[in-house]
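Service request form, structural biology core

Requester: graduate student, group of Dr. S.
Request type: structure prediction, single chain
Budget code: on file
Notes: please return the result as C-alpha cells.

Sequence provided:
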Amino acid sequence: MEEKDLKELWQRSVTADNIRLEQSTLLKDLSKKLNSLEKAVKRRDRLEISAAVFVAVAFIPIAITAPSLISMIGAGLVIPSSLFVIFKLLEVKKYQKLKGLAKSLKEHLIQQRDFLGKQKALLDTVLYWYILPPAVGITMYVVGLNSTLSALIIRLSVLLVMYIAVYFLNKYAVKKDIIPLLEKTKLAISEIEE
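Core staff response, request fulfilled:
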C-alpha cells in the first residue's frame, strides 16, 4: 500500500466513525424527546381521565334535578360521553404497555413510530371523540335552563370558544410535537436499515 492509499483509508474510517458518532447523538436526542413526550402523554391521560370521571359523577345529580326535560337529556348525554373519553384514552394506553417488548433498537424505534402514529390519530380525531359528544349534551343542558336569550347566547358563545380552543390546541400539539418526532423516528429507522 502506498502512502496515498493509507491516507484515503484513514480518511474513510474517520468519516465512518463521525457518521456513527453523529447517528448515536441523534438517536440519544430523539430518545430524550420521545421520553419527554411519553411523560407528557401520561400526565395528560391521568388529568383527562380524572376530569372525565369527575364530570360523569358530577352530572348524575344534575341529570336527575335538571329544570327541564331537555336539560335532563343533555346532562344524561354528558355522562356516557365522559366515559367514552376514558375509553379512548385507555385504548391507546393499552397499546403503550405492549411497547416494552422491543428487542433491538430498530424494533424500539418502530414501536415508538407506532406510538406517535396512534397519538397523532387520537389528536387528529379529537373533534369526534372529545369535543362533539359532550358538546351535544352540554349544549342541550344549557338550552334547557330556561334563561334569557342574551344569557343563552353568552353561554353558548363561551362554550363555542372553548370547543374551538381545544380543537386548535390539539392541532397545534400535533404540528409542534408529534409530527416532527414522527419524522425523526422514521428517518432514524431508515438510517438503521441502510
